[in-house]
Write a structure and sequence with these properties.
single chain, 259 residues, alpha+beta, 8 strands, 17% strand
Length: 259
């Protein structure tokens, strides 16, 4: 026999809807942060992996082909408005560079822009400034794409900093960790490296003295400059975070995380 005095417990429809609404609001606030955190961890791991691979690649290339200054690379300039002659020289020396390093990499696709027009896509700097387009030149098996190579000093005598390697810079190259997929921004999925007589160096090292390539000057979302984001590479590799995306008071000599 059921005791009619016992009240039935439950939720009204209004209470259920209010609860679901609260859950939805909390989810909307937290899920993007979780997704962004996951993407950052993915980028960090992939960048560190590339750094290891490219250093090994350059070591093997030097062992088999001699020192970089003997590779036959030419400096053709890196101006914003290059001449036709500079463009052609850049193409020749870039393909020479790829001819030498490609055998030591797991390459999915290589585009020689001296033979055909290579795929391009839009890019931005860290602060959102529109920049010149990227060109897919060398796509590795994991999707990492080398999108630019520049010869800064054929004799590897350019000085960008205080370390032995940074006193012997040969040139630089830029990679996009996920190819043409967004965000295509320097400092987020696009990173810059120097190749030197003494290995590959990530841009933004504490030892760098070149004013427009220091972490503090060119890895800060509050800076409006088309080069902004170039100097984030070393920070990601050695500090294993991308907190510069969330605060602007980080430095090699001070704060290493936002919190």
């Amino acid at each position: 026999m059921v005791d009619s005095d016992i009240k039935k417990l439950g939720f009204t429809m209004a209470e259920v809807l209010i609860t679901l609404g609260i859950i939805g609001i909390v989810a909307a606030m937290t899920i993007p942060q979780v997704i962004n955190g996951y993407k950052e961890r993915e980028y960090i791991a992939k960048l560190k992996k590339f750094y290891t691979i490219i250093n090994q690649t350059m070591m093997m290339a030097v062992e088999d082909n001699g020192e970089i200054e003997n590779w036959g690379l030419e400096q053709a300039g890196n101006s914003a408005d290059p001449s036709e002659e500079q463009i052609e020289k850049n193409k020749i020396t870039r393909e020479r560079f790829f001819d030498i390093i490609t055998p030591y990499l797991k390459v999915l696709y290589r585009c020689n822009d001296r033979e055909k027009e290579c795929p391009t896509y839009a890019r931005k700097s860290l602060d959102g400034t529109e920049f010149s387009k990227f060109t897919e030149r060398l796509v590795l098996a994991d999707g990492t794409t080398i999108v630019g190579v520049t010869v800064l000093s054929p004799t590897c005598e350019l000085e960008y900093g205080t370390s032995k390697a940074l006193k012997n810079v040969c040139g630089e190259f830029m990679i996009d960790l996920n190819g043409s997929k967004p965000p295509n921004k320097t400092g987020e999925d696009v990173f810059l490296f120097y190749y030197t007589k003494y290995g590959v160096i990530p841009c933004g090292m504490a030892e760098i003295t070149k004013s427009d390539r220091t972490f503090e000057s060119m890895c800060n979302k509050s800076v409006s400059n088309r080069l902004n984001g170039y100097a984030c590479t070393a920070w990601v590799i050695f500090n294993e975070n991308m907190d510069y995306l969330h605060c602007t008071d980080l430095s090699w000599s001070g704060k290493k995380k936002c919190k």
